[in-house]
């Protein structure tokens, strides 16, 4: 049986698979766990990230306000399901960077992960177009911003939770300034979290006739999960339908020592927009994963995902089940 390499999380949010469910991943029965108006001025709360913190959880949340400005907010929870999100956005202090980089144009779609003694945050940062913002915190009270990782245009920056071959490693999806009609996943390395290079292709879209849900563009989701068989990556894929874009998500397994090598990649999706809260909202037909909690003791995985660019949902799986499914259903 496959095992997660990491720490035990006995209080991981969890709900057993419903009786008769044949899917390898299942939704929380009380979804959405975060509704659009659970903050003082929010129009929508979605595409957000959570990590274990203290005796509960902390997170960085995308909250679009009623002027439709996109920004990031800290939030806290005892159980990972019921959240209190702050009403004022994050304020970053510059870690050796000029005020020009600190200036807020927009911030959205954060990923958060524990790395050694701090929590790193990656997000889509407005700097003459979308690029990858990078910062960190020790306590979710004071936040520090580093240099942007890349030039515009780029989205979906996702750090690995440890160095690989002595380097920091990040996945991203180069894009353009609009609602990008293309997108593949690339890997980049850095010795110091400032200078990024050795950019390498990881995987791209699939032919429509082989796996249509991921034929327009793809992008990385939560931080990769280390297992004894490889890095488990949940990623989103997009189909261009007669009703516009449809965002679903699936999984891939990357080599532990060289994550540009894709060992398996799902042909079917794990989750696609099917529930009302996934199909109806500011942007219909979107399921977009941004965070994954794991319990190494039981193999449980809980995934937070944005629904219709409006609310936040939660889904569950187990590492041995999802890897077995992945191997049997690989492109």
SSE topology sketch:
Elements lengths: L25 E2 L14 E12 L2 E10 L4 E8 L5 E3 L6 E3 L4 H4 L4 E9 L2 E9 L3 E8 L5 E3 L8 E6 L8 E7 L10 E6 L6 E7 L13 E4 L4 E3 L2 E12 L2 E11 L7 E4 L10 H4 L7 E9 L4 E8 L3 E8 H10 L3
Structure description:
This protein has a single domain (33-328), classed as 5 Propeller (Tachylectin-2, Chain A), CATH 2.115.10. The chain has helices at 99-102, 276-279, 319-328; strands spanning 26-27, 42-53, 56-65, 70-77, 83-85, 92-94, 107-115, 118-126, 130-137, 143-145, 154-159, 168-174, 185-190, 197-203, 217-220, 225-227, 230-241, 244-254, 262-265, 287-295, 300-307, 311-318. The chain is mainly beta. The strands form five sheets. Strands 6-10-9-8-7 form a five-stranded mixed sheet. It has three helices and 22 strands. A hairpin with a 2-residue loop joins strand 17 (230-241) and strand 18 (244-254).
So, the CATH homologous superfamily?
Glycosyl hydrolase domain, family 43
CATH fold-level label: Tachylectin-2, Chain A
Q: β content, as a range?
A: over 45%
Number of strands: 22
How many whole angstroms does the radius of gyration measure? 18 Å
Helix content, binned percent: under 10%
Low-confidence stretches: none
Largest beta-sheet characterization: 5 strands, mixed
Q: CATH first level: which class?
A: Mainly Beta
H-E string: EEEEEEHEEEEEEEEEEEEEHEEEH
- For the largest beta sheet, what order do the strands appear in spatially? 6-10-9-8-7
């Amino acid at each position: 049986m496959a095992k997660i390499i990491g720490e035990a999380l006995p209080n991981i949010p969890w709900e057993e698979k419903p009786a008769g469910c044949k899917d390898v991943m299942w939704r929380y029965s009380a979804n959405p766990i975060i509704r659009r108006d659970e903050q003082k001025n929010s129009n929508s709360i979605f595409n957000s990230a959570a990590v274990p913190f203290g005796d509960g959880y902390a997170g960085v949340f995308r909250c679009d306000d009623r002027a439709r400005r996109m920004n990031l907010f800290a939030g806290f929870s005892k159980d990972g399901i019921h959240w209190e999100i702050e009403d004022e956005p994050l304020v970053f202090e510059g870690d050796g960077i000029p005020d020009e980089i600190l200036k807020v144009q927009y911030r959205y779609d954060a990923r958060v992960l524990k790395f050694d003694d701090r929590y790193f945050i990656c997000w889509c940062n407005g700097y003459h177009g979308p690029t990858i913002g990078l910062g960190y915190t020790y306590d979710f009270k004071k936040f520090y911003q580093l240099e942007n990782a890349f030039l515009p245009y780029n989205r979906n920056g996702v750090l690995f939770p440890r160095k690989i071959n002595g380097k920091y490693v990040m996945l991203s999806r180069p894009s353009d300034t609009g609602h990008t009609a293309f997108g593949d996943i690339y890997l980049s390395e850095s010795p110091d979290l400032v200078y990024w290079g050795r950019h390498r292709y990881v995987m791209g879209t699939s032919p429509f006739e082989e796996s249509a849900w991921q034929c327009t563009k793809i992008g990385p989701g939560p931080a990769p999960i280390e297992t004894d068989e490889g890095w488990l990556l949940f990623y989103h894929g997009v189909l261009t339908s007669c009703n516009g874009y449809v965002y679903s998500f699936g999984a891939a397994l990357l080599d532990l020592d060289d994550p540009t090598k894709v060992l398996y990649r799902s042909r079917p999706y794990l989750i696609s927009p099917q529930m009302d809260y996934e199909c109806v909202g500011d942007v219909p037909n979107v399921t977009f994963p941004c965070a994954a909690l794991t319990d190494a003791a039981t193999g449980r995985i809980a995934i937070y995902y944005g629904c219709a660019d409006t609310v936040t949902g939660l889904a569950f799986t187990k590492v041995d089940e999802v890897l077995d499914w992945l191997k049997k259903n690989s492109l």
